[in-house]
């Protein structure tokens, strides 16, 4: 059996944490008298924590000191972690376990490639940590997506060449990162947003076992 490297983004691919990021960013925005909408939250998908706060401040036309910036980043994360603490397996997105189990049965290396610094905590909460042979997250990289660094490290850790890797991603920046790394990109979400991916599916329920097998054999 051929071996391919399967690299999964976390937020928006394995679990829907965008709603928790939204609640935490909204609380922060409110404290600064900034109106923060769900549409704006959409634009923060795949965007690093620092860059997210910079964007919110720019939308609200606010400038703040570095000290306050650092404090707000810490506060936001604490608030976010309070939601994460309540997560369990029921929050795994539909058919993700089926695909992970199939890959395991087919002996394929599986890696996580996430921008989040909370990735390990979240995987533990939803009981999926042991499904991954390598976990690369926001703590392991110096350049955020769309830079391909996170996926290149993820490929290296499972000893698979980048061109033999397949990336599942829900963000525009993440699909670009996978393409730049010369990996096969699979967008999870809408074709209107992720049209630059090699394949796009609304969610994992649309990804058949045969499709996964065809990726392995090609
Ligand atoms: C990405 C999310 O996966 O991780 C972003 O899509 C988030 O919304 C980024 O800002 C960083 O996450 P964290 O957990 O380190 O704040
Ligand atoms: Mg994501």
Automatic annotation (TrEMBL):
Pfam families assigned to the protein according to its UniProt record, in alphabetical order: Hydrolase (PF00702)
Enzyme Commission (EC) number: 5.4.2.6
Record carries keyword Isomerase: yes
Entry keywords, A to Z: Isomerase
One MF annotation (Gene Ontology) recorded for this entry: beta-phosphoglucomutase activity
PANTHER family cross-referenced by the UniProt entry: 2-DEOXYGLUCOSE-6-PHOSPHATE PHOSPHATASE 2, PSEUDOURIDINE-5'-PHOSPHATASE
NCBIfam families: bPGM, HAD-SF-IA-v3, PGMB-YQAB-SF
Protein family (similarity comment): Belongs to the HAD-like hydrolase superfamily. CbbY/CbbZ/Gph/YieH family.
Protein name: Beta-phosphoglucomutase
Organism phylogeny: Bacteria, Pseudomonadati, Bacteroidota, Flavobacteriia, Flavobacteriales
């Amino acid at each position: 059996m051929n071996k391919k490297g399967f690299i999964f983004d976390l937020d928006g691919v394995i679990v829907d944490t965008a709603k928790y990021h939204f609640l935490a960013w909204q609380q922060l925005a409110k404290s600064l008298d900034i109106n923060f909408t769900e549409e704006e939250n959409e634009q923060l998908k795949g965007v690093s924590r620092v860059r997210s706060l910079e964007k919110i401040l720019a939308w609200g036309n606010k400038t703040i000191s570095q000290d306050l910036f650092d404090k707000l980043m810490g506060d936001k994360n604490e608030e976010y972690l309070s939601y994460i603490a309540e997560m369990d397996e029921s929050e795994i997105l539909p058919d993700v376990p089926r695909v992970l189990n199939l890959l395991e049965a087919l002996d394929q290396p599986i890696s996580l490639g996430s921008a989040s610094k909370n990735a390990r905590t979240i995987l533990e909460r939803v009981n999926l940590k042991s499904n991954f042979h390598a976990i690369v997250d926001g703590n392991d990289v110096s350049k955020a997506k769309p830079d391909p660094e996170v996926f290149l490290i993820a490929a290296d850790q499972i000893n698979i060449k980048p061109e033999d890797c397949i990336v599942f991603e829900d963000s525009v920046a993440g699909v670009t990162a996978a393409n730049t790394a010369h990996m096969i990109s699979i967008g999870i979400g809408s074709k209107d947003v992720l049209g630059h991916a090699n394949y796009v599916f609304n969610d994992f329920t649309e990804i058949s076992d045969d499709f996964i097998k065809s990726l392995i054999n090609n």
